[in-house]
Every structure is written in C-alpha cells, then in structure tokens.
Write a structure and sequence with these properties.
Blueprint: E1 7-10, H1 28-41, E2 45-48, E3 50-51, E4 57-58, H2 61-74, E5 78-81, H3 91-101, E6 105-109, E7 113-115, E8 119-121, H4 125-138, E9 141-146, H5 149-160, E10 169-174, H6 184-193, E11 199-204, H7 209-219, E12 222-225, E13 232-234, E14 237-238, H8 242-255, H9 263-270
Parallel strand pairs: 1-2, 1-12, 2-5, 5-6, 6-9, 9-10, 10-11, 11-12
Antiparallel strand pairs: 3-4, 7-8, 13-14
Helix pairs in contact: 1-2, 1-8, 2-3, 3-4
Organism: Limnobaculum allomyrinae
Cofactor: Zn(2+)
Protein name: 3-keto-5-aminohexanoate cleavage protein
C-alpha cells in the first residue's frame, strides 16, 4: 500500500477566475460537486480554498463550513483546508477554521516570500508557532508547503520545537513566481533534502505541471493536480474539469505500476486521525 500514489486535487485556489477558465468551481456548491467528481475519478485528498460572493479569495469560516458539510454528505475524501487563501487575511482568520472544523490536513506554508512579483506572502515565525500549536491541539496534520529550500530548513526548526509532528508530510511547490522554478532538477534537489521517513508530494504550476507530475511519479512521490495550479489541460486547451486532471494522473500512476490510493489508504499512509488501524 505504501507504494500507491495519493492524488490531491486543488480545485479552486485563491486567484484563477471564470475568465481564466469558465469551468473552475467557486461557490460552495460548485466546489462540493467538483470534489465529488474528482473523488469518483480517483482523488484521495481535496485541497480547498474559498471564494467570496465576488469571486475573490477569502478565509470566511462560513464558506469553509458550508463547503465541508456539502462534501461530507457526498463522499469520504480527505479534507485539506488552506490557511493562506487571502493575502489580506489576519492571523486569526487564517487559523479559526482549522480549530473549528478540525480537518485531517491543513496547509502550513513554512516561510515568507515575494508573491507573483506584486505582493508579499507573509508567514512570520510567531504565526507559524501559533499555527503549529493550533494544529497539534486540533489533531490536524500539517501539509508543509515548500516553495524554496529555505522553507524546508524552517520546517526542521519547528519539528525540533515539537510544533510539527513526524513523520512530516511535505508538498513541494514549483513554478510559483517568487519561488523555485518548475524544473526536474529543482524537484530532485528539494526531494533529496527530505528526511527518509517523510511523506511527500509535488506539483508544477502552469506549463511546469506535466514535467513535475511525470518526474514525481518516477521518483516515488505523491501528486497534486487541479485548476488552482493550472487551468490548461494541454497547450492551448482549457481543462474541462478538475476530474479530467485527476483521471490523467490515475492513468499515469497505473502505467507507472504504482496504482492510486483510496481515501482510506491515504489516511493510513499519512497517519491521519481518521485512519482505521
């Protein structure tokens, strides 16, 4: 089972719009229906961002609560909630939904960076300490997002401070403007930094999506797909749905001889609180 590939679908993100791709889900109902289709296609984890009524990224707890409830009515997919869905959010609103909803996973962005050459993505030490403690108190496993090597070394500090439990789960993010470029060489470098017992996944943004997807499968990692990261299925062709991305990842994992993990298997692999032992 440990050789199976966990597929995460990142359905929405904080920035892509209907103008970028009319098929991207934005409302709680759209997101829930989309997640259900992705679960049927083979996704084990859903990474969720929320949008406000104007389509902007938001950390509004009511949107999270409604969306999670709708998904839970439909399927047993592992829920992974963002803690960084709005660059103007407060520390409190970035953590409130984690404590209230207690998802099995939540993102833990392990450092600050320039964002898209236009703003700042701030994750300062006090916030990371508070977020780590909230996750421990709530029984939530951090998905440690790594945009560059410095963030990995930051994670070792919080592990040493017992604010991240081990074995850790890393998500390697390649291709974000202001972060590490989406090349296979960079993926191998970041992957080789990780402790041998760590679990890891990776994805490439935009045109880096396919090279990183293929290389991650070859290296034995888990994968993330979805319109948060890439609204095009192939060059010049918009994705028709997030399930289309999931279906391709399933085919590739099968061709690689690895197969894909069910939500129940993903819980066991990652040691999540919902795992049946």
């Amino acid at each position: 089972m440990n050789n199976k590939t966990i597929i995460t679908v990142a359905t929405t993100g904080a920035f892509p719009t209907k103008e970028d791709n009319p098929n991207i889900p934005l409302t709680p109902k759209e997101i829930a229906n989309d997640v259900y289709e992705c679960w049927q296609a083979g996704a084990a984890i859903a990474h969720l961002h929320m949008r406000d009524d104007q389509g902007k990224g938001t950390m509004n707890i009511d949107k999270f609560t409604e969306t999670v409830a709708l998904i839970r009515e439909k399927c047993d997919i592992v829920i992974n909630l963002t803690t960084s869905g709005d660059l103007n959010a407060t520390d409190e609103t970035r953590m409130m939904h984690v404590a209230a909803l207690k998802p099995e996973l939540a993102s833990y962005d392990c450092g600050s960076m320039n964002w898209a050459h236009s703003g700042l993505f701030i994750n300062y030490p006090k916030f990371l300490e508070q977020l780590g403690q909230v996750m421990i108190d709530s029984g939530v496993k951090p998905e440690i997002e790594i945009f560059d090597a410095g963030m990995f070394y930051n994670s070792l500090y919080y592990i040493k401070k017992n604010l991240i439990n081990t074995p850790a789960y890393y998500q390697l993010v390649l291709g974000a403007a202001g972060g590490t470029a989406a090349t296979v060489e960079n993926l191998v470098y970041l992957r080789n930094l990780l402790p041998p017992e760590a679990h890891w996944s990776a994805f490439g943004i935009g045109k880096g999506h396919m090279p990183i997807l293929l290389a991650t499968l070859a290296l034995g990692g888990h994968v993330r797909v979805g319109m948060e990261d890439n609204v095009y299925y192939s060059k010049g062709r918009l994705a028709q749905s997030n399930a289309e991305f999931v279906s391709r990842a399933v085919r590739l994992a099968d061709e690689a001889g690895r197969g894909t993990a069910t939500p129940a298997e993903a819980r066991q692999i990652l040691g999540l609180k919902g795992a049946v032992l």
